[in-house]
Amino acid sequence: MKKHKSEINERFVEYFRENFFADKPEELEKFLESLTKPLPKTIRVNTTRISVEDFKARAMRNNWTLTPTNNPTVFRIDRTEIKIPLGHTLEHLLGYFYIQELSASMSVHYLAERTSENLDFRVQNSVSSFTVPPRTAHSGTHFSHESLRWDVQDNTLPYLILDMAASPGGKTTQLAEHFPTSIIVANEPTRDRMAQLVSNTERLGNDRIMITNYDGGFYSNLPETFDRILLDAPCSGEGIGFKESQTVKYWNLKNIHTIARLQTKLLDAAFRALKTGGEILYSTCTLNKIENEGVVNEILNRYPESFEVLFEKRFWPQDEGSGGFFVCKIRKNTTIEKMEDKKPRAIKTNEEVIPLTKDHERLLSKFTETVGLDVSNHSLFEFKRDILAIQKNSAAKALLQTVFPIRLGQKLGRIEEGVFTPDNRIGRDFELKKTPIYEIRSEQELDDYLRGKEIGENLGEWYFVLRYDGLNLGIESANPKNNRFTNTFPREWQRK
Predict the structure, then answer these.
(1) Number of folded domains that form the chain
(2) Runs of H (alpha helix) within 149-292
């Protein structure tokens, strides 16, 4: 339902009038009006699973209309025939796209670009490009260049990347797309938000993702560790006032300053955890100066020799056709002194996630040989009875000595009483060269399977990869009682 501008707090209006629109009453009116309007639905193509062009072809067959945005993997989507909700479509359940507001997708996009001296600011890649004019630096912050050009950089180096406030997982999985050989540490401080993060990373693919549940300040105890850090900070949410009327209805400066203190703590911790020469992208979905330039300037003043602002910009919803947001890209030029104001937290050795034992390695090898699964590019671990695989990365392996992950990479399966049972998802996420394909025969049979029902008949004792319309759904084996597939499709993804 559309909100009315009368729901916007007068203190909010006065703050933005004084700080941004003092002599621009018409622009202020447009800004306030933009906060009452819902935005069009947008989706991001998961390019770790499918190319943009192939996804467009599938969308056309589904009678979906995709309209490009200024992010080359994000599209506005319109569907003329809505038989089932977008979140229950096969492409969504299998992780081929993520429902994401355009502004939420931009932080990773900027982190993945590089800056170089030139006459304009530009984002370029093989799909599309757009130009944004440069803005001058605000008081207290310096820039390396008066204007910037941004080009897609070579992100094939095996970085260790921290997503510091990761749930619900959209940006985490987007990092995996932009940095195809890097390990992503997705940290979510709030335990209640962990389930959504785990579900989304598993749905979109996660053999390079490590999920942790520490408060943001924890990572200050791991100095000079990460090559890149994304801090999409908790904020007051002014830029997405169209979603939550409470944001602008009860707005007050006391709350803003409280939030800014937390953001400052997080950015300080991120800067300490960043390697010298590394980069941070600090972003919020809010627009006031206190949570944005104010936080950046506070850390700049603490570390003036090391802290360099490469680029910053505020995106106004009335201009961008998206939610409002702020981004600031930062480089660490020199190491910083050790913390003197507090004693570093003692870090326990991780003794729960361990390398795969020899006995369990033999059990797994027997299965991988049978189905034709190659995990030679992965490091193998076990947690309790779960067998886990994460792409090989020496920095991530070292990090596991001191960090306990809630989830680590891809779950291959589980060993109980000397028997290995594969996880359904490996039939979707890995090539199983020796495993026969079972082609689901109709939309009805597909719907039955996605609702948790057993399908198939007279199957025999063997594993099959289930496929429909060219998409692998998972691996299944027959129930010996009725020779039908035992349905192990993840319950949290099933159609209701």
Answers:
(1) 3
(2) 170-178, 194-204, 245-249, 253-273
What secondary structure does DSSP assign to 339-382, as a single string? P-SSPPPP-----SEEEPPHHHHHHHHHHHHHHTB--TTEEEEE
Asked if 197 contacts 166 with a C-beta cutoff of 8 angstroms, the reply is yes
Whether residues 214 and 359 share a domain: the answer is no
Average pLDDT score over the chain: 87
Q: Is residue 11 part of a domain?
A: no
- Summarize the confidence of residues 411-417 as an average pLDDT: 96
What is the model's pLDDT at position 140? 33
Q: Known binder of ligand: residue 188?
A: yes
Q: Does residue 378 share a domain with residue 322?
A: no
Same structural domain for residues 468 and 394? no
Q: Are residues 112 and 253 in the same domain?
A: yes
Q: How far apart are CA 70 and CA 106, in angstroms?
A: 9
Dihedrals phi, psi of 321, to nearest 5 degrees: 70, 30
Question: pLDDT by residue (tens digit) across 313-332?
Answer: 999 999 988 899 999 999 99
Q: How far is CA 463 from CA 430, 434, 474, in A?
A: 14, 10, 10
Q: Is 232 flagged in the annotation as binding?
A: yes
| Same domain assignment for residues 417 and 445 | no
Would you name the residues annotated as active-site residues?
285
Convert the pLDDT of each residue in 18-41 to its tens digit: 999 999 999 999 999 998 888 889
Region 275-285: mean pLDDT is 97
Q: Is residue 366 part of a domain?
A: yes
pLDDT at 195 over 80: yes
Domain that holds residue 362: 353-421
User: Where is the domain boundary, 272, 302, 332?
Assistant: 332
CB burial of residue 434 (10 Å; 0-12, 13-18, 19+) = exposed
* Residue 471: CATH number of its domain: 2.30.130
| pLDDT > 90 in the chain, percent | 73
